[in-house]
Design a protein that fits this description.
This protein is of the alpha/beta class. The chain has helices at about 10-30, 40-45, 50-65, 80-90, 110-115, 130-140, 145-155, and strands at about 1-5, 35, 70, 95-100, 140-145. A 5-stranded parallel beta sheet has the order 2-1-3-4-5, with helices on both faces. Helix 4 (about 80-90) runs parallel beside helix 6. It is globular, with a radius of gyration of 17 Å.
């Protein structure tokens, strides 16, 4: 089985996170071939040149030949490329497993945090675009930790 790993890759933090998480997933699932776009030097060597059509074609080919998409939902907003990849996967009926680790999702029963929602600019929680997360939930799962991520992936490997 082949999986497409979707996350931003332009900051050193994202690049390193992607490499670390994909290495862990490759160890946990040796039967799973994971395409990590940052490893594709033909389109992502930033010292070289690849135009928008080259990037779109290469990543879409990899995405549509996959049987699973693993999408990272963290960040100020979902990365624009990741949101596009989620849309393509949904349209092609490719299951999607999202990983959303933002710590601001904690405390959902804290009465002070809930009350703060009534005060302008005091939202204690993080917002994730509901359309994009809805596409995932209609065709997959959203998890918030590595153990649940691996359980969800395992479900799709069966």
């Amino acid at each position: 089985m082949k999986a497409y790993f979707a996350n931003g890759l332009f900051s050193q933090a994202d690049f390193d996170f992607n490499a670390k998480l994909v290495a862990q997933l490759r160890t946990a699932f040796p039967e799973l071939t994971i395409y990590l776009p940052q490893e594709n030097a033909a389109i992502n060597d930033k010292q070289a040149y690849a135009d928008s059509k080259m990037i779109a074609q290469a990543d879409t080919d990899e995405l549509t030949s996959s049987q699973l998409v693993i999408a990272i939902l963290d960040g100020i907003t979902i990365d624009a490329g990741v949101a596009s990849e989620i849309g393509v996967a949904y349209a092609k009926h490719i299951p999607i497993v999202g990983l959303y680790t933002d710590s601001r999702q904690q405390g959902a029963t804290n009465s002070k945090k809930l009350a703060a929602l009534q005060t302008i600019a005091e939202n204690q929680f993080h917002y994730v675009n509901l359309y994009t997360t809805g596409l995932i939930k209609l065709n997959g799962d959203i998890t918030n930790n590595f153990a649940d991520l691996t359980s969800s992936i395992r479900k799709y490997l069966s």
